[in-house]
Structures are given as structure tokens and as C-alpha cells.
Specification:
Layout lengths: L17 H19 L3 H13 L2 H19 L1 H4 L10 H60 L9 H6 L5 H15 L4
Helix pairs in contact: 2-5
Length: 187
């Protein structure tokens, strides 16, 4: 069932087959669930981090530091009271504190993104395992059909036989670890 002709559907679904549309909706649902699971403070931190990550923020910082230095260097000419004489200890402290806060914001945002990436990795692994099981079953059925069908020659196919055996994920993971340790020097 495609959504062609349905005005209530977004334009992005107009030309998609039903199974692709279901996949897209599943992915969107996954992202929405992740967003809805965010606490108010996490959403706030992400908004602040996004604002700080814009190129305009570099201009704001440069303008602020330039004004701070100019006001303190030219305080006599500007007829204002100097609040941070060179070498600008207060400015250095403010920059250090700001850097500490930005680091905490970035780490908080990254922690949440890492959870999303871990969920995606788990989902990808699950889909891959199911796909491998289905492929193995298809190969087994095709081999069974080939051997049972009277008009097809019965021959031994070692590759099909090997591919019809399901791979144990733990064994594969252990093989990857061992091979990695053999070829990559320890840090």
C-alpha cells in the first residue's frame, strides 16, 4: 500500500514502496523516542552547546575579548575606570571558567549522543543477526530443494554447505579480537 494520492501524507512518502516507508517510519520513531527520553536539562544543554558551536560564537568571543582589552588599555582616554589591568587576570580567569563550562556542556551532550550511537549499534547488530539467520535459512532451503528436485543434478557444493551453517556471534567476535591483537601492537 503506497501513499500515492493521499494528501495527508508528507511528500517524502509519495513515491516510496510500503516496506521502505515502514523502515523510514521506524527510523524516525527511533529518533523521536530518543528525543522524548531527554530530560529538560539535557535538552537545555544541547541547545546551549548547539549555540556555542556556531561560527558566530567565535565572533562574539573575539568581540568580547577585544572590548575587554580595549576598555582596560584605553581607560584613561575613554574616561572609564580600569577594572582589569594588563596582563588581564580577570579576563584569563573568565576565559578559563568559560572553557571549563563549555567542556562540561560538550561532554554532557556527547554522553547523550553516545547513548544514541550505542542504541543504533545494538539495533544494527540485531538486524544483521536476523538477516544472517534468514540468509542461512534461505541457503539451506535452496540446497534442500536442489538435492530433492529430480531434474536438478545432485552435486556437492562446499561453499553452499559452509554458508548454510549459521555463524555464532560470540565466536566471530572472539576471532576478530584475536586477529586484532595479533596484527595491532598494544598501546
Amino acid at each position: 500500500m503506497t501513499n500515492q494520492g493521499h494528501s495527508s501524507e508528507p511528500d517524502g512518502f509519495a513515491d516510496l514502496p510500503e516496506h521502505v516507508e515502514r523502515s523510514v517510519r521506524s527510523i524516525v520513531g527511533f529518533k523521536i523516542a530518543h528525543s522524548l527520553a531527554a530530560t529538560f536539562s539535557e535538552r537545555t544543554v544541547e541547545r546551549v552547546t548547539a549555540a556555542l558551536g556556531r561560527p558566530q560564537f567565535i565572533g562574539v568571543i573575539a568581540t568580547f575579548v577585544t572590548l575587554w582589552v580595549a576598555i582596560n588599555v584605553f581607560s584613561l582616554q575613554l574616561h572609564v575606570r580600569r577594572f582589569d589591568a594588563p596582563p588581564f587576570y580577570w579576563l584569563q580567569g573568565l576565559i578559563s571558567f568559560t572553557a571549563l563550562c563549555m567542556t562540561a556542556l560538550i561532554l554532557t551532550t556527547q554522553r547523550r549522543l553516545d547513548r544514541l550511537a550505542e542504541d543504533r549499534a545494538q539495533l544494527t547488530l540485531q538486524v544483521s543477526l536476523v538477516a544472517e539467520q534468514k540468509t542461512t535459512k534461505l541457503i539451506q532451503l535452496l540446497e534442500e530443494f536442489r538435492t530433492d528436485h529430480p531434474e536438478l543434478p545432485n552435486r556437492e557444493d562446499l561453499v553452499a554447505e559452509a554458508m548454510s551453517a549459521s555463524a555464532d556471534p560470540q565466536t566471530v567476535l572472539e576471532a576478530i579480537r584475536i586477529t586484532h591483537e595479533e596484527h595491532v601492537p598494544p598501546v
